[in-house]
Amino acid sequence: MTNHPHALDALAATDTAELRELLLDVCTSPAWADAVVAARPWKDRRALLDANAKAMAGLSVADLHEAMAGHARIGAPKPGDATSEREQAGVHGADEALLDELRRANAAYEAKFGHVFLICATGRTAATMLAALRERRPNDPATEAEIVRGELLKINDIRINRLLDDN
């Protein structure tokens, strides 16, 4: 992990309202963004990632739903959204039958849980995401909420590191 102290310092010094907006691009939960903003100053990258973890741990189920609302359905990256496209690169070139199966499995999952199937898709293929979706569908809502919390944490860590590395 490359260290970009100037990027971290610049981020920490950003106006509160602007920082909140930047963080909402990482995670669409206002409660999460507010908690990470409140954790300033971060002494280093690890402290910012720890603030992510602490904020994620404190989210209610409603907050988790707000966070999930910012994510594209697996197998259907948001057109023109570079983050969505990058994170779901594993579905590019997947067989159409596999993508159809993924769409059906997503629909069944969404009917059961009332939200998109959320997984840290970075580095995963369409087949591995489908397998995870099938594995998690039998979960009860409380179990699934905790799995989603863990997946969001991983996604946020990746996005925070990218934010720091790109600046």
Automatic annotation (TrEMBL):
InterPro entries, per database record: OHCU_decarboxylase, OHCU_decarboxylase-2, OHCU_decarboxylase_sf
UniProt KW Lipid metabolism keyword: no
Reaction equations catalysed: 5-hydroxy-2-oxo-4-ureido-2,5-dihydro-1H-imidazole-5-carboxylate + H(+) = (S)-allantoin + CO2
SUPFAM superfamilies: UraD-Like
Functional pathway: Purine metabolism; urate degradation; (S)-allantoin from urate: step 3/3
Residues covered by the Oxo-4-hydroxy-4-carboxy-5-ureidoimidazoline decarboxylase domain: 14-161
Source organism superkingdom: Bacteria
MF (Gene Ontology): 2-oxo-4-hydroxy-4-carboxy-5-ureidoimidazoline decarboxylase activity
Protein keywords: Decarboxylase, Lyase, Purine metabolism
EC class of the enzyme, as a word: lyase
EC number(s) per entry: 4.1.1.97
One Pfam family this sequence matches: OHCU_decarbox
Alphabetical list of NCBIfam families matching this protein: PRK13798.1, UraD_2
Protein name: 2-oxo-4-hydroxy-4-carboxy-5-ureidoimidazoline decarboxylase
Annotated source species: Kitasatospora misakiensis
